[in-house]
Amino acid sequence: MSYEWNVYKIFKNGKRAKIVFHKFGYNEPKAVEEYFESKVKVTFSKKMQRSKFIIIRDDLPQNCEDPIEKQKKIFEEKKKRVLRKHLKSTEIINSNRIVGGLIFCRANNWKWQWAALEAGTSRYLLGISPTFSSHEEASEWMQNEVNQL
Q1: DSSP for 77-99?
Q2: How far apart are CA 107 and CA 39, in angstroms?
Q3: 113 has a pLDDT exceeding 90
């Protein structure tokens, strides 16, 4: 059985192109990388031969997001929700936009703390968590808050 394979270029920032760069047919899924390197890639221009590529079988889903990256993305979204929830409960009067983040600064006696910050300058406005001696403790606190969502 012959399979069709889609070749996508990987950019220098690590992201994959959305449009298929090249298609080819090959019947041995276990050896497709080797075939691509020895027979297909050599037909590309010298500049393109230096590029990185990913090969995905045409009949399979074409999104190839790394499961670990997907979990990180989900955690970041949940972390943002926790920060927004805490920021809504504060009554900060500030003309600038307010964001939440983890900070280590003089205003909280050189301890780690999740805080309301002025967007753009990251100026400390108000603590929204207890202070922590280490970054790991602050991260654990956030993990517990995310788990409670």
Answers
A1: HHHHHHHHHHHHT-----SS-EE
A2: 62
A3: yes
Tell me which of 67 and 21 has the higher pLDDT. 21
Task: Report the alpha-carbon distance of residue 103 to residue 116 in Å, rounded.
Answer: 9
Domain coordinates in residue numbering, the chain: 3-57, 67-147
> For residue 116, which of 141, 143, 89, 142 has the smallest C-alpha distance?
89
Q: What is the pLDDT of residues 17-66, one digit of tens each?
A: 889 999 999 998 889 999 999 999 999 999 999 999 999 999 888 876 66
Q: Which of 148, 125, 142, 147 is nearest to 83 (CA)?
A: 142
Q: What is the pLDDT of residue 95?
A: 62
Packing angle between helix 67-88 and helix 135-147, nearest 10 degrees?
90
Q: Can you tell me whether residue 101 is helix, strand or coil?
A: strand
CA distances 17 to 8, 38, 62, 112, 133, Å, are 6, 22, 11, 39, 43
